[in-house]
Design brief:
About 40% of the residues lie in helices and about 25% in strands. The chain is α/β, with parallel strands linked by helices. This is Methyltransferase domain-containing protein.
């Protein structure tokens, strides 16, 4: 199936409904350290124009603004943007949040010194279109910085479990391909010179595997929607399947969860 036969707009409508379910920032806020490491790897400077694509509640934008960059976050889920505005106001950070699609950014060509995303743009269903947009809005000589879950890591395995309960749309590539160097090379070609490709680990810390499953079922929108469609034995089986995921990556020996989740930190220069 080619990309011309996939209804990406319909897919994004369903995705948006997923992110507008639950309360994703309850999960996303725990990932702030990924954004802090990313902007450090990208060597963000004060006064630079920084764009956070598929920003959710604005982790990259907040990290950049803390370094006195002029930060903008863009996302298509308006509820997440509103929470981003609340976060920025609480921290007295001048971040601009704008509604927009990662595959059709409402921003001018060559307008940002750094375009970044932490586990955000990877969920755009049309990978090539999203990559093209990242390049389009980055200044020549500017940087593109991405943090994406890897296929083999814990979140890659989580998505495999989720796909058993809610199969992904036909013709859409897995989001975790953004966490594979070869996929980035294919998407960006010679338009980006990747100067750093680093495998890192984020540690998910929860009271127990069951707490992890409960938290994601309550707050991680796409999983919340699946859980809401189940009852009785199916609901319990789904919760059990989710709880099994961190067990395979857990190194804690005190009954809590400290589960390593691999992601690819990619920083490159736009030619």
């Amino acid at each position: 199936m080619t990309s011309t036969t996939v209804d990406f707009e319909a897919i994004k409508d369903k995705q948006r409904a997923g992110w507008q379910t639950g309360d994703y920032p309850r999960v996303g806020n725990t990932l702030q350290i990924i954004a802090e490491l990313l902007v450090e790897a990208a060597d963000v400077r004060a006064g630079q124009q920084v764009l956070d694509v598929a920003c959710g509640q604005g982790n990259v934008a907040m990290a950049a603004a803390r370094r006195f960059a002029e930060a903008t976050g863009v996302d298509y889920a308006v509820n997440l943007l509103e929470q981003g505005r609340e976060r920025a106001a609480a921290e007295h950070l001048p971040v601009t949040f704008t509604e927009g699609d990662a595959e059709n950014l409402p921003l001018p060509d060559k307008s940002f010194d750094l375009v970044g995303s932490t586990v955000g743009v990877m969920f755009a269903p049309n990978h090539q279109q999203a990559a093209d947009e990242l390049v389009r809005v980055t200044k020549p000589g500017g940087k593109i910085a991405l943090a994406s879950w890897t296929p083999a890591g814990m979140i890659g395995q989580l998505f495999k479990v989720v796909s058993k309960w809610a199969p992904p749309p036909a013709g859409v590539q897995p989001a975790t391909l953004w966490g594979a160097e070869e996929h980035l090379f294919e998407l960006f070609g010679d338009r980006v010179e990747w100067t750093a490709l680093t495998k890192r680990e984020y540690v998910f810390r929860y009271h127990s595997p069951e707490h992890f499953a409960e938290w994601f079922m309550d707050f991680y929108g796409p999983i919340t929607r699946i859980a809401g469609s189940l009852d009785g034995e199916d609901y319990r089986h789904f919760a059990s399947d989710l709880a099994d995921v961190p067990r395979a990556f857990d190194y804690a020996d005190d009954g809590t969860v400290a589960a390593r989740a691999e992601y690819l930190e990619a920083v490159g220069t736009r030619r």
